[in-house]
Design goal:
The protein contains 15 helices and eleven strands. It has 376 residues and is α/β, with parallel strands linked by helices. Helix 3 (72-82) packs parallel to helix 14. The longest helix is centred in the C-terminal third of the chain and has 27 residues, at 349-375. It starts with 24 loop residues before the first helix and ends with a helix.
Length: 376
Protein backbone atom coordinates (compact mmCIF):
# COMPACT_ATOMS: atom_id res chain seq x y z
CA UNK A 1 0.00 0.00 0.00
CA UNK A 2 1.35 3.41 -0.98
CA UNK A 3 2.03 5.75 1.90
CA UNK A 4 0.14 9.08 1.74
CA UNK A 5 3.43 10.94 1.94
CA UNK A 6 4.44 9.48 -1.43
CA UNK A 7 2.08 11.92 -3.14
CA UNK A 8 4.30 14.75 -1.96
CA UNK A 9 7.59 13.09 -2.81
CA UNK A 10 7.21 12.64 -6.55
CA UNK A 11 9.27 15.69 -7.47
CA UNK A 12 12.71 15.47 -8.95
CA UNK A 13 15.31 14.52 -6.36
CA UNK A 14 17.67 17.38 -5.49
CA UNK A 15 20.97 15.93 -6.65
CA UNK A 16 22.69 18.44 -8.97
CA UNK A 17 26.00 17.92 -10.69
CA UNK A 18 28.86 20.15 -9.58
CA UNK A 19 29.23 23.30 -11.65
CA UNK A 20 32.38 23.18 -13.77
CA UNK A 21 32.30 26.56 -15.49
CA UNK A 22 31.79 24.87 -18.87
CA UNK A 23 27.98 24.83 -18.73
CA UNK A 24 25.81 26.78 -21.14
CA UNK A 25 23.00 28.87 -19.67
CA UNK A 26 20.24 26.37 -20.45
CA UNK A 27 22.11 23.46 -18.87
CA UNK A 28 22.95 25.57 -15.80
CA UNK A 29 19.27 26.47 -15.33
CA UNK A 30 18.14 22.86 -15.64
CA UNK A 31 20.85 21.49 -13.34
CA UNK A 32 21.37 24.09 -10.62
CA UNK A 33 18.23 26.27 -10.47
CA UNK A 34 16.26 23.80 -8.36
CA UNK A 35 14.46 25.70 -5.60
CA UNK A 36 13.20 29.08 -4.37
CA UNK A 37 13.07 31.78 -7.04
CA UNK A 38 15.75 29.97 -9.03
CA UNK A 39 13.36 27.04 -9.20
CA UNK A 40 10.53 29.31 -10.33
CA UNK A 41 12.76 30.72 -13.09
CA UNK A 42 13.54 27.21 -14.31
CA UNK A 43 9.83 26.35 -14.23
CA UNK A 44 9.06 29.56 -16.10
CA UNK A 45 11.66 28.80 -18.76
CA UNK A 46 10.20 25.35 -19.26
CA UNK A 47 6.63 26.63 -19.39
CA UNK A 48 7.70 29.13 -22.03
CA UNK A 49 9.63 26.69 -24.21
CA UNK A 50 7.59 23.51 -23.72
CA UNK A 51 4.05 24.91 -23.89
CA UNK A 52 3.82 28.60 -24.71
CA UNK A 53 5.96 28.21 -27.84
CA UNK A 54 3.82 25.41 -29.30
CA UNK A 55 2.98 26.17 -32.96
CA UNK A 56 -0.66 26.92 -32.16
CA UNK A 57 0.13 29.47 -29.42
CA UNK A 58 0.03 33.23 -29.93
CA UNK A 59 2.45 34.82 -27.46
CA UNK A 60 1.80 38.30 -26.07
CA UNK A 61 4.43 40.13 -24.03
CA UNK A 62 3.75 43.00 -21.66
CA UNK A 63 6.77 45.10 -20.74
CA UNK A 64 7.39 47.55 -17.91
CA UNK A 65 10.47 48.89 -16.17
CA UNK A 66 13.38 50.64 -17.85
CA UNK A 67 14.36 47.61 -19.91
CA UNK A 68 15.47 49.20 -23.19
CA UNK A 69 17.83 51.79 -21.68
CA UNK A 70 19.72 48.87 -20.11
CA UNK A 71 20.20 47.32 -23.56
CA UNK A 72 17.66 44.54 -23.11
CA UNK A 73 15.94 45.48 -26.36
CA UNK A 74 19.03 44.48 -28.31
CA UNK A 75 20.15 41.60 -26.09
CA UNK A 76 16.78 39.93 -25.47
CA UNK A 77 13.67 41.43 -27.06
CA UNK A 78 14.89 41.53 -30.65
CA UNK A 79 16.18 37.92 -30.56
CA UNK A 80 12.83 36.76 -29.11
CA UNK A 81 10.91 38.56 -31.87
CA UNK A 82 13.21 37.32 -34.64
CA UNK A 83 12.78 33.72 -33.43
CA UNK A 84 8.99 34.08 -33.54
CA UNK A 85 8.81 33.70 -29.76
CA UNK A 86 6.91 36.96 -29.19
CA UNK A 87 3.99 37.70 -31.54
CA UNK A 88 2.69 40.99 -30.14
CA UNK A 89 3.66 43.42 -27.38
CA UNK A 90 2.14 45.89 -24.93
CA UNK A 91 4.82 48.21 -23.55
CA UNK A 92 5.16 51.37 -21.58
CA UNK A 93 5.80 54.34 -23.84
CA UNK A 94 9.02 55.04 -21.95
CA UNK A 95 10.56 51.75 -23.10
CA UNK A 96 9.76 52.63 -26.71
CA UNK A 97 11.03 56.19 -26.41
CA UNK A 98 14.36 55.11 -24.94
CA UNK A 99 14.55 52.31 -27.52
CA UNK A 100 14.60 54.99 -30.22
CA UNK A 101 17.90 56.42 -28.89
CA UNK A 102 19.77 53.37 -30.16
CA UNK A 103 18.31 53.54 -33.68
CA UNK A 104 19.39 57.18 -33.85
CA UNK A 105 22.97 56.29 -32.93
CA UNK A 106 22.78 58.08 -29.59
CA UNK A 107 24.93 56.88 -26.70
CA UNK A 108 23.90 55.59 -23.27
CA UNK A 109 26.63 54.71 -20.78
CA UNK A 110 27.17 52.58 -17.70
CA UNK A 111 27.44 54.77 -14.61
CA UNK A 112 26.98 54.64 -10.85
CA UNK A 113 23.78 54.80 -8.84
CA UNK A 114 25.72 56.62 -6.10
CA UNK A 115 26.57 59.62 -8.27
CA UNK A 116 25.69 63.12 -7.09
CA UNK A 117 22.48 63.98 -8.95
CA UNK A 118 22.86 67.72 -8.36
CA UNK A 119 26.25 67.57 -10.06
CA UNK A 120 24.83 65.42 -12.86
CA UNK A 121 22.12 68.02 -13.46
CA UNK A 122 24.71 70.79 -13.58
CA UNK A 123 26.76 68.79 -16.11
CA UNK A 124 23.71 67.99 -18.28
CA UNK A 125 23.79 64.26 -17.55
CA UNK A 126 20.56 62.27 -17.10
CA UNK A 127 20.53 59.22 -14.82
CA UNK A 128 18.36 56.09 -14.90
CA UNK A 129 19.72 54.37 -11.78
CA UNK A 130 23.20 53.38 -13.06
CA UNK A 131 22.69 54.39 -16.71
CA UNK A 132 24.00 57.82 -17.79
CA UNK A 133 23.36 59.81 -20.96
CA UNK A 134 23.73 63.37 -22.11
CA UNK A 135 20.66 65.62 -21.96
CA UNK A 136 21.07 66.17 -25.71
CA UNK A 137 19.98 62.55 -26.22
CA UNK A 138 16.50 63.53 -25.06
CA UNK A 139 16.42 66.66 -27.20
CA UNK A 140 17.60 64.80 -30.31
CA UNK A 141 15.03 62.03 -29.84
CA UNK A 142 12.27 64.56 -29.18
CA UNK A 143 13.15 66.38 -32.39
CA UNK A 144 13.05 63.13 -34.38
CA UNK A 145 9.69 62.10 -32.93
CA UNK A 146 8.17 65.51 -33.70
CA UNK A 147 9.61 65.66 -37.23
CA UNK A 148 8.31 62.20 -38.12
CA UNK A 149 4.93 62.62 -36.40
CA UNK A 150 4.28 65.81 -38.40
CA UNK A 151 4.36 63.91 -41.71
CA UNK A 152 1.12 63.55 -43.70
CA UNK A 153 0.55 59.84 -43.00
CA UNK A 154 0.37 60.61 -39.27
CA UNK A 155 -2.35 63.25 -39.55
CA UNK A 156 -5.30 61.17 -38.43
CA UNK A 157 -6.56 59.17 -35.43
CA UNK A 158 -4.82 55.79 -35.17
CA UNK A 159 -4.19 52.95 -32.80
CA UNK A 160 -0.86 52.96 -31.00
CA UNK A 161 0.08 49.86 -33.03
CA UNK A 162 -0.33 51.90 -36.22
CA UNK A 163 1.71 54.76 -34.80
CA UNK A 164 4.53 52.51 -33.62
CA UNK A 165 4.59 50.67 -36.95
CA UNK A 166 4.98 53.94 -38.86
CA UNK A 167 7.54 55.32 -36.39
CA UNK A 168 9.44 52.04 -36.53
CA UNK A 169 9.71 52.34 -40.31
CA UNK A 170 11.39 55.74 -40.01
CA UNK A 171 13.70 54.46 -37.28
CA UNK A 172 14.66 51.60 -39.58
CA UNK A 173 15.55 54.06 -42.33
CA UNK A 174 17.69 56.06 -39.91
CA UNK A 175 19.45 52.89 -38.74
CA UNK A 176 20.33 52.01 -42.32
CA UNK A 177 21.54 55.53 -43.03
CA UNK A 178 23.85 55.32 -40.01
CA UNK A 179 25.07 51.84 -40.92
CA UNK A 180 23.38 50.30 -37.87
CA UNK A 181 21.42 47.05 -37.60
CA UNK A 182 19.16 45.42 -35.03
CA UNK A 183 19.48 48.26 -32.55
CA UNK A 184 15.82 49.11 -32.07
CA UNK A 185 12.80 47.06 -30.99
CA UNK A 186 10.49 49.45 -32.86
CA UNK A 187 12.57 49.12 -36.02
CA UNK A 188 12.61 45.32 -35.88
CA UNK A 189 8.92 45.15 -34.97
CA UNK A 190 8.21 47.12 -38.16
CA UNK A 191 10.22 44.66 -40.24
CA UNK A 192 8.75 41.58 -38.56
CA UNK A 193 5.20 43.05 -38.39
CA UNK A 194 4.96 42.54 -34.64
CA UNK A 195 2.25 44.96 -33.39
CA UNK A 196 3.26 47.03 -30.38
CA UNK A 197 0.65 48.78 -28.25
CA UNK A 198 1.02 51.26 -25.39
CA UNK A 199 -1.61 51.09 -22.67
CA UNK A 200 -1.03 54.71 -21.57
CA UNK A 201 0.10 56.59 -24.69
CA UNK A 202 0.23 59.96 -22.95
CA UNK A 203 2.54 58.66 -20.22
CA UNK A 204 5.89 59.00 -22.01
CA UNK A 205 8.03 61.45 -23.92
CA UNK A 206 6.51 60.17 -27.17
CA UNK A 207 3.05 61.12 -25.91
CA UNK A 208 4.37 64.43 -24.61
CA UNK A 209 5.74 65.37 -28.02
CA UNK A 210 2.52 64.32 -29.76
CA UNK A 211 0.60 66.47 -27.25
CA UNK A 212 2.82 69.45 -28.07
CA UNK A 213 2.03 69.04 -31.76
CA UNK A 214 -1.70 68.94 -30.99
CA UNK A 215 -1.35 72.49 -29.66
CA UNK A 216 0.12 73.46 -33.02
CA UNK A 217 -2.78 71.95 -34.99
CA UNK A 218 -1.67 68.36 -35.62
CA UNK A 219 -4.54 65.97 -36.33
CA UNK A 220 -2.68 62.97 -34.91
CA UNK A 221 -4.63 61.34 -32.08
CA UNK A 222 -4.13 58.02 -30.32
CA UNK A 223 -7.34 55.96 -30.58
CA UNK A 224 -7.39 54.07 -27.27
CA UNK A 225 -10.69 52.36 -28.15
CA UNK A 226 -9.02 50.91 -31.24
CA UNK A 227 -6.24 49.59 -28.98
CA UNK A 228 -8.74 47.90 -26.65
CA UNK A 229 -10.62 46.26 -29.50
CA UNK A 230 -7.61 45.29 -31.60
CA UNK A 231 -5.88 43.56 -28.69
CA UNK A 232 -9.09 41.68 -27.87
CA UNK A 233 -9.35 40.70 -31.54
CA UNK A 234 -5.84 39.22 -31.50
CA UNK A 235 -6.72 37.02 -28.53
CA UNK A 236 -10.06 35.94 -30.00
CA UNK A 237 -8.39 35.09 -33.30
CA UNK A 238 -5.87 32.89 -31.53
CA UNK A 239 -8.67 30.95 -29.84
CA UNK A 240 -11.04 30.70 -32.81
CA UNK A 241 -8.39 29.35 -35.15
CA UNK A 242 -7.73 26.35 -32.92
CA UNK A 243 -4.87 27.91 -31.02
CA UNK A 244 -4.05 29.20 -27.56
CA UNK A 245 -3.29 32.60 -26.06
CA UNK A 246 -0.13 32.90 -23.98
CA UNK A 247 0.48 35.87 -21.66
CA UNK A 248 4.18 36.56 -21.00
CA UNK A 249 4.32 39.37 -18.43
CA UNK A 250 7.64 41.14 -17.85
CA UNK A 251 7.04 43.37 -14.84
CA UNK A 252 3.49 44.50 -14.12
CA UNK A 253 1.76 47.85 -14.21
CA UNK A 254 -0.66 49.09 -16.83
CA UNK A 255 0.70 46.92 -19.69
CA UNK A 256 0.01 43.79 -17.63
CA UNK A 257 -3.60 44.76 -17.08
CA UNK A 258 -4.03 45.83 -20.70
CA UNK A 259 -2.90 42.40 -21.84
CA UNK A 260 -5.05 40.48 -19.36
CA UNK A 261 -8.15 42.66 -19.78
CA UNK A 262 -8.55 41.37 -23.33
CA UNK A 263 -10.45 38.39 -21.95
CA UNK A 264 -12.91 40.39 -19.77
CA UNK A 265 -13.40 42.65 -22.80
CA UNK A 266 -14.34 39.62 -24.88
CA UNK A 267 -16.47 37.89 -22.25
CA UNK A 268 -17.92 40.55 -19.96
CA UNK A 269 -18.22 43.59 -22.22
CA UNK A 270 -18.73 42.13 -25.69
CA UNK A 271 -20.66 39.10 -24.44
CA UNK A 272 -18.68 36.61 -26.51
CA UNK A 273 -18.27 33.09 -25.12
CA UNK A 274 -14.65 32.61 -24.01
CA UNK A 275 -12.74 31.20 -21.01
CA UNK A 276 -9.51 33.16 -20.55
CA UNK A 277 -5.85 33.11 -21.53
CA UNK A 278 -4.36 29.64 -21.67
CA UNK A 279 -0.85 30.33 -20.35
CA UNK A 280 0.42 32.82 -17.78
CA UNK A 281 4.08 33.50 -17.08
CA UNK A 282 5.03 36.56 -15.05
CA UNK A 283 8.46 37.75 -13.99
CA UNK A 284 8.16 40.45 -11.35
CA UNK A 285 9.52 41.83 -8.09
CA UNK A 286 6.06 43.04 -6.96
CA UNK A 287 4.36 41.44 -3.93
CA UNK A 288 0.74 40.24 -4.08
CA UNK A 289 -0.22 41.27 -0.54
CA UNK A 290 -0.22 45.03 -1.20
CA UNK A 291 -3.28 44.73 -3.43
CA UNK A 292 -1.59 46.18 -6.51
CA UNK A 293 -2.18 44.79 -9.98
CA UNK A 294 1.55 44.36 -10.57
CA UNK A 295 1.75 41.66 -7.90
CA UNK A 296 -1.63 40.04 -8.52
CA UNK A 297 -1.32 36.28 -8.98
CA UNK A 298 -2.82 34.15 -11.76
CA UNK A 299 -5.18 32.67 -9.15
CA UNK A 300 -6.72 36.10 -8.64
CA UNK A 301 -6.89 36.65 -12.41
CA UNK A 302 -9.12 33.57 -12.69
CA UNK A 303 -11.84 35.32 -10.70
CA UNK A 304 -11.93 38.07 -13.34
CA UNK A 305 -12.11 35.68 -16.26
CA UNK A 306 -8.61 36.65 -17.37
CA UNK A 307 -7.10 33.18 -17.03
CA UNK A 308 -8.67 29.86 -18.01
CA UNK A 309 -9.14 28.07 -14.64
CA UNK A 310 -8.35 24.70 -16.23
CA UNK A 311 -4.86 26.01 -17.05
CA UNK A 312 -4.12 27.39 -13.59
CA UNK A 313 -1.79 24.52 -12.49
CA UNK A 314 0.52 25.39 -15.38
CA UNK A 315 0.98 29.08 -14.54
CA UNK A 316 4.26 30.39 -13.12
CA UNK A 317 5.25 33.58 -11.30
CA UNK A 318 8.98 34.29 -11.03
CA UNK A 319 9.92 36.79 -8.31
CA UNK A 320 13.11 38.19 -9.75
CA UNK A 321 14.58 41.38 -11.17
CA UNK A 322 13.80 41.30 -14.90
CA UNK A 323 17.21 42.66 -15.85
CA UNK A 324 18.39 39.25 -14.58
CA UNK A 325 15.46 37.04 -15.54
CA UNK A 326 14.78 38.16 -19.12
CA UNK A 327 18.27 37.52 -20.57
CA UNK A 328 18.36 34.11 -18.87
CA UNK A 329 14.95 33.11 -20.23
CA UNK A 330 15.93 34.35 -23.69
CA UNK A 331 19.10 32.28 -23.70
CA UNK A 332 17.21 29.22 -22.44
CA UNK A 333 14.45 29.51 -25.04
CA UNK A 334 16.85 30.00 -27.94
CA UNK A 335 18.89 26.98 -26.82
CA UNK A 336 15.94 24.68 -26.21
CA UNK A 337 13.42 25.57 -28.94
CA UNK A 338 13.75 26.07 -32.70
CA UNK A 339 12.58 29.31 -34.26
CA UNK A 340 8.86 29.53 -35.08
CA UNK A 341 7.35 30.94 -38.30
CA UNK A 342 6.53 34.61 -37.86
CA UNK A 343 2.81 35.29 -37.44
CA UNK A 344 3.09 38.87 -38.77
CA UNK A 345 -0.03 39.92 -36.88
CA UNK A 346 0.21 43.60 -37.79
CA UNK A 347 -0.88 42.92 -41.37
CA UNK A 348 -3.77 40.76 -40.15
CA UNK A 349 -5.40 43.33 -37.87
CA UNK A 350 -8.32 44.16 -40.18
CA UNK A 351 -9.28 40.50 -40.65
CA UNK A 352 -9.05 39.82 -36.92
CA UNK A 353 -11.22 42.85 -36.18
CA UNK A 354 -13.80 41.59 -38.65
CA UNK A 355 -14.10 38.33 -36.71
CA UNK A 356 -14.45 40.23 -33.43
CA UNK A 357 -17.18 42.50 -34.81
CA UNK A 358 -19.07 39.55 -36.30
CA UNK A 359 -19.08 37.64 -33.02
CA UNK A 360 -19.94 40.78 -31.05
CA UNK A 361 -22.97 41.47 -33.25
CA UNK A 362 -24.13 37.87 -32.91
CA UNK A 363 -23.77 38.05 -29.12
CA UNK A 364 -25.59 41.37 -29.04
CA UNK A 365 -28.47 39.97 -31.11
CA UNK A 366 -28.69 36.98 -28.77
CA UNK A 367 -28.88 39.26 -25.73
CA UNK A 368 -31.56 41.35 -27.40
CA UNK A 369 -33.65 38.25 -28.15
CA UNK A 370 -33.33 37.09 -24.54
CA UNK A 371 -34.40 40.52 -23.31
CA UNK A 372 -37.46 40.43 -25.57
CA UNK A 373 -38.35 36.92 -24.41
CA UNK A 374 -38.08 38.08 -20.79
CA UNK A 375 -40.52 40.92 -21.49
CA UNK A 376 -42.98 38.60 -23.19
Amino acid sequence: MTRPSANYLRGRRIDPQAITGKENVADLLDNAFLAYNAGRLREGCRLFTDRMLAPESTVAMSLTGAMTPAGLGMSSLIPLMEAGFVDWIISTGANLYHDAHFALGLALHQGSHTADDVELREQGVVRIYDIFFDYSVLLSTDAFVREVSARPEFQRPMSTAEYHYLLGGYLREREKALGLSKRSVLSMAHELEVPIYTSSPGDSSIGMNVAEQALAGSRLRFDVSADVNETAAIVLEAKRTGGKSAAFIVGGGSPKNFLLQTEPQIQEVLGIDERGHDYFLQMTDARPDTGGLSGATPNEAVSWGKIDPDQLPGTVVVYLDNSVALPLLTAYALARHPARPLKRLYARRAAMMERLVTEYRAALAFRDRRAEDAKG
